[in-house]
Here is the input.
Amino acid sequence: QVHVVESGGGSVQAGGSLRLSCAASGSIFSIKGMGWYRGAGSQRHLVAGITRDGDANYVDHVNGRFTISRDNAKNTVYLQMNNLKPEDTAVYYCAATVLVRSDSDYEPPVENDYWGQGTQVTVSS
Here is the structure.
């Protein structure tokens, strides 16, 4: 079993900063891609993603303001958000593609995607 937990959301004024953290725990062999999404249901979309090697990509409207990073030793991904705008207000979700350890030494790890419960970010004008 694998759990993904976000933290660091909150309320700030426009122009302010927040840092989100997301930690994965459990029967983890390794973690491949990790990413931050925002929005609910069919509106949910990728904000920033990062590979295990540290290659990052961003959606256009956060490029230059947000920075994604990760600590592989801690199974953690971060999102530093600067110069926040009211339109950044959303619930932010962390996702991780995890190779899950098998209970048997004779079976390979199994790949699954896991999501956190979300953390609210509110930016006031």
